[in-house]
Design brief:
The complex is a heterotrimer of chains A (426), B (153) and C (361). Chain B is of the alpha+beta class and 153 residues long. Chain B has two domains: 43 residues; 98 residues, 3-layer Sandwich (Rieske Iron-sulfur Protein). Chain B contains one helix and ten strands, in the order αββββββββββ. Chain B has a six-stranded antiparallel β-sheet with strand order 1-10-9-4-3-2, with no helix packed on it. In chain B, strands 5-6-7-8 form a four-stranded antiparallel β-sheet, with no helix packed on it. Chain B is elongated. Chain C has 361 residues and is mostly helical. Chain C folds into two domains: 27 residues, no CATH class; 253 residues, Cytochrome Bc1 Complex, Chain C (Up-down Bundle). Chain C has a two-stranded antiparallel sheet. In chain C, strands 3-4 form a two-stranded antiparallel sheet. Chain C is globular, with a radius of gyration of 23 Å. The chains are: A mainly alpha (426), B alpha+beta (153), C mainly alpha (361).
């Protein structure tokens, strides 16, 4: 009885094993056995997102994966082979531009990558026969393609810049093209790169401004739109300012003119005004309206900044001395907010508008400063009061001490004998 | 120290008086330095109560429909919104992103933060832009002529 | 002055027999030995307790015991009420000073073996008072409703939950619910201003009556010396000699409190937010640190008991032994059993100091 049970169990196990085994894939088995470069696709394909979705070599390359012989790769079996460089976009687009097919796997997937690519500089040059430009596999990988949301993918947000830099930062490779190769180095210095590296994946990288499939550098007129997708206030103010029309007339690239395109660093107040770090003096000269406005704006910003610092300092001293100044500190935060807003309002290039904000902030800072000074005065009052109370206490203690000595005098310092009699003499 | 002689009794007495005087005045002075603060303490200060939980934010009719008003609640700014349908909502006006003061946008019918374009809906929920958390909500009641805002229980 | 006193006493005596009370009190003496400094500690603790009552009543005029208002009302006292900063800081500092002198008083009584017959009940009432004082400290700490207090209370009541058997009930009883909320604040406020003061008054009355009735204990070494004729016992009358000396100490304490309040005011902190994460480094007040640190060092399991439970049981057993010391230390003044208890006392002090220092690192 037990023996038959064991036999049946073993049989059913082996049956299950047979049913669960994957269908024969000679592509993988043959290529893996070949070793070297020909084996790479087979080993890489393990992690590929297409493999995870259930696709096999033949689904892209055609051919017959059940055929053990070289016939598996014959035209008769539909084999397409490895595409040439200028055929790659259409090769991938066979599926990736097919809405019905793609939405079987991911209903939200975009299917316009090919049409976007064809508008890009890469796409246009590829069509003209330039094989040095990037096509799908140059950025996404070939047989080990990972999803965009996978942090290991070359197209994951923190990896995009180095992927583009593979070509665009290689001066030797880029020889012959008429564009600079320092963008990556400049970008790395930028506040965007640092924010992205710090973990904020909403910070922009190359593809955020340039597009990923339709990669075209923003034209002069569209740069401000790109920056303005995140820096809304600054763009709106700039558009209403006199600089918008003036820059357009001169063919100057909006935001980039002062902030640069790749090396976008944190601006300081010194960028405004007429000092050595000023961006205004690039165009404005002493005597013209802009020069005066720049001076006035810097003066206002600096005035508010120093008022804030002064008030914060005195409040900190008061707080360290133990005074309760949380109220004035909260009010001072309002003045700080005015400074933040004033710095944004610099983009109106209207000194009066900035001045209004800084005036309000200076007023608040002055009140907070007064509160801090009052707190320090109160601290001094408390210490004087303490001093007086201590004098009174010392007097009292002195009096007590003398009283005790007087009561117990006539005896040695101990309290021998009939102290009671002496006590009653008090 | 006791000295012998006819005046010793007197000097002892006068010393005793001085010591009593010193003791008395010391104790009296110290008592005054304790009682004085205590007496001033029990007299209520000009602002009679601690920062409330309960503020009259506006009068009925002061705010048009579909408009907002910033008022002080405790030591922080707060926002009272009079909706288009006539009801009132009140929120903390401190943006949860970087603490700028938010405002009601009657064109967007949402609460907006000017600093970085953050948006909150009329439930106070952060719906767009950088703010990571909703705005704290307060309760609003109409008491006679007053629109009263209190902290949620 | 003296005649006024006499006249008042006579007036009261004619109506209430106050004269016999005065007689009862007048005969109190204090033995004068080289240990006399320790005898001031009981009075000092009582004095600081009275300061707590007075400043506490004043604070009660402005404090509001609800989570919405508590922090703001303390802030109000510190910033708007005239001399509010003084009253509040004195109250907080004096609380800590009082617990410190209570510790000193307890240990000095222990080492001078004043708990021996006939003063066993004085010791027991004193130990109960000591626990009440710790309860005052724990309940009062929550009342400003700031972040430190909130989380310290959370941790402290959590430990109460580990007591075997009654733990769950005890935790809910203390917190007024499952979590630390406004209900906890209300409850702690009730403990702090009504329940504990009531119990303390009762026990204090017993404690002081016993002290008065049984007189001051003489240190065992002096007692032995007197018995062997090597020295004679000197006594100082309590009224007025010892009392005047007491008053010097009390005035000095007032000076210290005033200085602390003016130069190191007690901080306000930030308002408690139940949904915020606990800040790093939460720990209870210094007088609970040694227990807190011990529990941190205990392994997760000791034999068959959960580590924390073993720790709490350990402390409970230690407390019971400590309270029962008058009945355990039988042959005081003679023989070696007594030195065991002296050694135990030294160990306890050393343990408390070392563990507290480790917790502060």
């Amino acid at each position: 009885m037990t023996k038959s049970i064991i036999v049946v169990a073993l049989l059913s196990l082996s049956l299950r094993a047979t049913v669960a085994a994957p269908p024969k894939d000679t592509c993988i088995t043959c290529h893996a056995a070949l070793g070297g470069d020909l084996a790479k696709p087979a080993s890489q394909f393990e992690v590929d997102v297409h493999h995870q979705a259930g696709l096999r070599c033949a689904d892209c390359h055609g051919g017959d994966p059940s055929d053990d012989s070289m016939n598996a790769m014959s035209h008769a079996k539909g084999f397409r082979g490895a595409p040439k460089k200028n055929q790659i976009p259409e090769f991938c687009a066979r599926c990736h531009s097919d809405v019905t097919y793609m939405h079987r796997f991911n209903p939200q997937m975009r299917v316009d990558q090919l049409s976007e690519y064809l508008t890009s500089v890469h796409g246009k040059r590829l069509k003209q026969g330039d094989t040095k430009v990037a096509a799908c596999v140059d950025c996404h990988g070939v047989h080990n393609i990972l999803a965009v949301s996978d942090t290991r993918a070359p197209v994951y947000s923190t990896n995009v810049a180095s992927t583009c830099a593979r070509c665009h930062a290689d001066a030797a490779y880029m020889k012959g093209f008429d564009i600079p190769t320092n963008q990556f180095a400049l970008y790395e210095k930028s506040v965007h790169a640092q924010t992205l590296a710090g973990g904020d994946t909403s910070a922009p990288t190359c593809s955020t401004c340039h597009g990923n499939h339709g990669a075209t550098p923003p034209g002069v007129s569209s740069v401000a739109n790109v920056c303005g997708t995140c820096h809304v206030m600054n763009e709106q103010l700039f558009d209403k300012s006199p600089h918008q029309a003036a820059f357009a007339k001169m063919g100057l690239p909006g935001c980039v003119q002062c902030h640069s395109n790749h090396e976008i660093v944190r601006p300081t107040d010194a960028w405004v005004g007429t000092g050595p770090q000023s961006v205004c003096t690039t165009c404005h000269t002493p005597g013209d309206k802009g020069y005066g406005a720049a001076q006035a704006t810097l003066a206002d910003l600096t005035h508010l900044d120093s008022s804030l610092t002064r008030a914060a300092e005195v409040l900190n001293v008061a707080e360290r001395a133990g005074m309760e100044v949380s109220g004035p500190k909260v009010e001072l935060a309002g003045a700080h907010e005015d400074l933040v807003k004033a710095r944004v309002d610099v983009h109106t290039f209207d000194a009066a508008a900035v001045g209004k904000l800084t005036d309000s902030g200076v007023e608040i800072a002055a009140k907070s400063y007064q509160a801090g000074v009052a707190a320090l005065r109160e601290r001094d009052y408390r210490r004087k009061g303490l001093g007086l109370a201590l004098i009174a206490i010392v007097l009292a203690i002195g009096g007590l001490y003398l009283k005790i000595r007087q009561m117990e005098s006539g005896h040695s310092i101990g309290h021998r004998g009939d102290v009671e009699r002496k006590a009653r003499e008090v | 120290m006791e000295t012998p002689g006819p005046t010793s009794r007197d000097s002892v007495q006068s010393r005793r008086r001085w010591i009593n005087l010193l003791l008395g005045s010391g104790v009296a002075a110290s008592i005054i330095s304790f009682i004085y603060p205590a007496l001033r303490y029990i007299i209520p200060p000009p602002v009679a109560e601690s920062a409330s939980n309960f503020v009259v934010a506006a009068k009925v009719g002061e705010l048009k429909n579909n408009s907002g008003k910033i008022f002080r609640f405790g030591s922080r700014p707060a926002l009272l919104v009079h909706l288009a349908d006539g009801s009132y909502r009140a929120f903390s006006a401190v943006c949860t992103h970087l603490s700028c003061t938010v405002q009601y946008r009657s064109d967007l019918r949402e609460i907006w933060c000017a600093c970085h374009n953050g948006l909150y809906n009329l439930e106070g929920r952060n719906v767009s832009g950088p703010p990571p958390r909703p705005l704290a909500t307060y309760e609003v009641h109409i008491q006679g002529d007053d629109v009263v805002v209190t902290r949620a229980a | 002055m003296a005649t006024l006193y006499r006249k008042t006493l006579n007036w009261l005596d004619e109506r209430f027999g106050a004269g016999s009370v005065e007689e009862f009190l007048r005969h109190k003496t204090v033995p004068v030995t080289r240990h006399i400094l320790w005898y001031y500690l009981g009075g000092m603790t009582l004095f600081l307790f009275i300061i707590q009552i007075l400043t506490g009543i004043l604070l009660l005029l402005y404090y509001r015991p609800t989570p919405n208002d508590a922090f703001e009302s303390v802030q109000f006292i510190m910033t708007q009420v005239r001399f509010g900063w003084l009253i509040r800081s004195v109250h907080s500092w004096s609380a800590n000073l009082m617990i410190f002198t209570a510790f000193l008083h307890m240990f000095s009584v222990y080492f001078l073996k004043a708990y021996r017959k006939p003063r066993e009940l004085t010791w027991i009432s004193g130990m109960l008072l000591f626990f009440i004082v710790l309860g005052f400290g724990f309940s009062g700490y929550l009342l400003p409703w700031n972040t430190l207090a909130f989380f310290a209370t959370k941790v402290g009541t959590e430990m109460a939950g580990s007591v075997p058997g009654i733990g769950k009930w005890l935790l809910v009883f203390l917190r007024g619910g499952q979590e630390v909320t406004g209900a906890t604040l209300t409850r702690f406020f009730g403990f702090h201003i009504a329940v504990l003061p009531g119990l303390a008054t009762l026990l204090l009355a017993i404690h002081l009556f016993l002290v008065q009735k049984l007189g001051m204990s003489v240190p065992p070494s002096v007692e032995r010396a007197v018995a062997e004729g090597r020295t004679s016992l000197r006594n100082m009358p309590f009224f007025p000699n010892f009392l005047l000396r007491d008053m010097i100490g009390w005035y000095a304490a007032l000076g210290v409190l005033g200085g602390l309040a003016a130069i190191f005011p007690w901080e306000l902190g930030t308002k408690a937010d139940a949904f915020a994460a606990a800040p790093a480094g939460i720990r209870p007040e210094w007088y609970f640190l040694f227990m807190f640190q011990t529990l941190k060092y205990l392994p997760a399991r000791i034999l068959f008991l959960e580590g924390e439970l073993a720790g709490i049981l350990g402390f409970s057993v230690a407390a019971v032994v400590w309270i029962m010391v008058p009945f355990l230390d039988r042959r005081i003044g003679f023989g070696r059993l007594t030195r065991v208890f002296t050694g135990l006392g030294v160990f306890v002090i050393g343990y408390i100091i070392v563990l507290s220092a480790l917790a502060l690192r």
